[in-house]
């Protein structure tokens, strides 16, 4: 069955009905203390979908107090890991059971195509809960025997209350990526969804409640980042901040949390290279390059937004790329045949469109796309775009555009490929295509990126460290690395005999 037919069998035809997005505090859905709301928009039409509780300091305080009480006095951190794991596995089962509904709400709210949400992001969200439940059961301490005098061992202990702040691209999956390890480790949390895509967080709240999570363990505060998010970061009751979003926001959050000595995990922006050598399987490299930057509407942190191509195959690859890009199916997010949907918000559309003026002013050629697709007169649709002639001097090569925009640049040799790949401030992902095994390893070891894929698209195993170098982040999450962040490693020193103790004052 083709992807399109598979989707057609299950996709809802009409947008789902959704109620207002409320905060979720101590197991209850509640409006903002101020009573204020703002609207979330359908990116395909820019019509309002529903109202969203406009959180501020008082709402954050209520949520953090609920999370604090659940941590200090509630059962969750004290339950054996196996009992917590049972609840988290039920969360996964409920995500599977409600997958169609979650996918429909997420498509409506984000504009990301149905097929990419329903068949990739939602199954991954359920998998996050199953995986981290299992990991928590397998956490083991270390033993340091010291010359028969001491045994020192380590324990993983939960830290406390975590503030989990997420962006609007693939919000449901990203929320579960943080919530699952945070809870599996025995912490409690306050989730701050992005203001442009708040709706699926409410479904997650219903699901964790129905799965039997004790009240106050999981809380949600909606609102704009500078108010609701900043209040969570500044709150003295919060010890951990896991943030995914723009680099500039990450800096601001670290400044605001510094005086409270919070522990931070920062998953930030990217401008990742796809390096294609002439000896690569060019058909597969092209498939992966196109999917890597045009899926999720180009709003993907690990997007390969700079295609670096060895000179002898540059012209042929660009021709093939342009032919394929012209046939990408642009359409309504809920249509299972759609490959590219609308950008999240009119402000973001204008930002992406603005880069086309920047490109032209700098002498870069807009070889495909660059604007609203022909014949589409509403919504935040942006045609798949190819920029030619950009190199390290140009802003469109340097800056994260976070839309369906690909820069293609030729290189002469391996040294130049590595130089171009590293000539940006980001270092999240890199993709290397070559049939020369030694070169693949050489280039991977020189590229400044937290994650390198060789002859592969972005395929992830949940055990593997996820995160970036340089301006793309601080720390790693995934597998055991998530538990490094979400637990305290406590050392317990046990004396085995009568080791010497200095006897001050004993004469
Ligand atoms: P953003 O930084 O604007 O917002 C992210 C979240 O932070 C939102 O919930 C927002 O409300 C909140 N926020 C904003 N200001 C805040 C403040 N002062 N204090 C506390 N919270 C605040 O990012 P975005 O536009 O929503 O998302 C796109 C960005 O996310 C891109 O840069 C993308 O690369 C990045 N991203 C990174 C990863 C990764 O894993 N590295 C994954 C997905 C997205």
What overall geometry do the principal axes of the alpha carbons give?
Answer: globular
**What is the percent of helical residues?**
25-40%
CATH fold type of the largest domain: Aldehyde Dehydrogenase, Chain A, domain 1
Distance from first to last alpha carbon: 88 Å
Name of the top-level CATH class of the largest domain: Alpha Beta
**What proportion strand?**
15-25%
Structural class category: alpha/beta
Number of helices: 16
Could you tell me the radius of gyration in angstroms? 24 Å
List segments where confidence is low: pLDDT < 50 over at least 5 consecutive residues. 1-9
Strand order of the largest sheet: 14-15-16-13-12-18-19
According to CATH, the homologous superfamily of the largest domain is Aldehyde Dehydrogenase, Chain A, domain 1
**Overall number of domains:** 2
CATH architecture of the largest domain: 3-Layer(aba) Sandwich
Write down the overall mean pLDDT.
96
Short description:
The protein has 507 residues and is of the alpha/beta class. The chain is 39% helix and 20% strand.
How does this model look, in words?
With 507 residues, the chain is an alpha/beta fold. It has helices at residues 3-10, 57-72, 81-97, 99-110, 114-138, 171-184, 199-210, 225-234, 247-258, 282-294, 311-325, 346-361, 395-398, 414-421, 437-446, 479-486; strands at residues 23-25, 28-30, 37-41, 48-53, 143-146, 150-158, 161-165, 188-192, 218-220, 240-244, 263-267, 273-276, 306-310, 365-368, 385-388, 405-411, 426-427, 429-433, 451-454, 469-470, 473-474, 487-495. Helix 3 packs antiparallel against helix 5 (114-138) and helix 4 packs across helix 5. The radius of gyration is 24 Å and the shape is globular. The protein binds nicotinamide-adenine-dinucleotide.
């Amino acid at each position: 069955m083709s992807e399109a037919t598979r989707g057609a069998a299950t996709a809802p035809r009409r947008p789902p009905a959704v109620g207002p997005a409320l905060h979720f505090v101590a197991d209850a859905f509640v409006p903002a203390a101020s009573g204020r709301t703002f609207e979330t928009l359908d990116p395909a039409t820019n019509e309002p979908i529903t109202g969203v509780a406009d959180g501020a300091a008082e709402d954050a305080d209520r949520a953090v107090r609920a999370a604090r009480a659940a941590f200090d006095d509630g059962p969750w951190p004290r339950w054996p890991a196996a009992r917590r794991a049972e609840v988290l596995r039920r969360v996964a089962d409920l995500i599977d059971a409600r997958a169609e509904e979650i996918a429909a709400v997420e498509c409506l709210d984000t504009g990301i195509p149905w097929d990419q949400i329903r068949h990739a992001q939602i199954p991954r969200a359920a998998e996050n809960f199953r995986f981290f439940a299992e990991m928590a059961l397998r956490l083991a301490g270390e033993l340091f025997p010291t010359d028969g005098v001491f045994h020192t061992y380590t324990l993983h202990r939960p830290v406390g209350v975590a503030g989990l702040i997420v962006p609007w691209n693939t919000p449901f999956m990203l929320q579960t990526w943080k919530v699952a390890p945070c809870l599996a480790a025995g912490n409690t949390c306050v989730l701050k969804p992005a203001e442009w895509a708040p709706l699926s967080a409410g479904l997650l709240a219903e699901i964790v409640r129905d799965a039997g999570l004790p009240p106050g363990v999981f809380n949600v505060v909606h609102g704009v980042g500078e108010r609701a998010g900043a209040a969570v970061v500044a709150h003295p009751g919060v010890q951990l901040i896991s943030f995914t979003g723009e680099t500039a926001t990450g800096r601001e959050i670290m400044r605001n949390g510094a005086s409270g000595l919070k522990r931070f995990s920062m998953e930030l922006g990217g401008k990742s290279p796809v390096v294609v050598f002439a000896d690569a399987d060019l058909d597969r490299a092209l498939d992966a390059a196109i999917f890597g930057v045009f899926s999720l509407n180009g709003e993907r942190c690990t997007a390969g937004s700079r295609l670096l191509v060895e000179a002898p195959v540059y012209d042929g690859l660009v021709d093939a790329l342009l032919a394929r890009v012209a046939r990408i199916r642009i359409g309504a997010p809920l249509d299972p045949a759609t490959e590219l949907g609308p950008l999240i918000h009119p402000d973001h559309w204008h930002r992406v469109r603005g880069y086309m003026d920047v490109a032209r002013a700098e002498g870069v050629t807009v070889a495909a796309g660059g604007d609203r697709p022909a014949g589409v007169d509403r919504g935040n649709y942006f045609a798949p775009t190819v920029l030619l002639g950009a190199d390290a001097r140009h802003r469109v090569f340097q800056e994260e555009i976070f839309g369906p925009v690909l820069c293609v640049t030729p290189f002469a040799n391996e040294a130049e490929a590595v130089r171009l790949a590293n000539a940006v401030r980001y270092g999240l992902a890199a993709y290397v295509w070559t049939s020369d095994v030694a070169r693949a390893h050489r280039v991977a070891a020189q590229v400044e990126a937290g994650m390198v894929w060789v002859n592969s698209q972005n395929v992830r195993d949940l055990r593997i460290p996820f995160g970036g170098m340089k301006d793309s982040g601080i720390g790693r999450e995934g597998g055991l690395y998530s538990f490094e962040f979400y637990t305290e490693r406590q050392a317990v020193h046990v004396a085995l005999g009568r080791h010497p103790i200095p006897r001050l004052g004993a004469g």
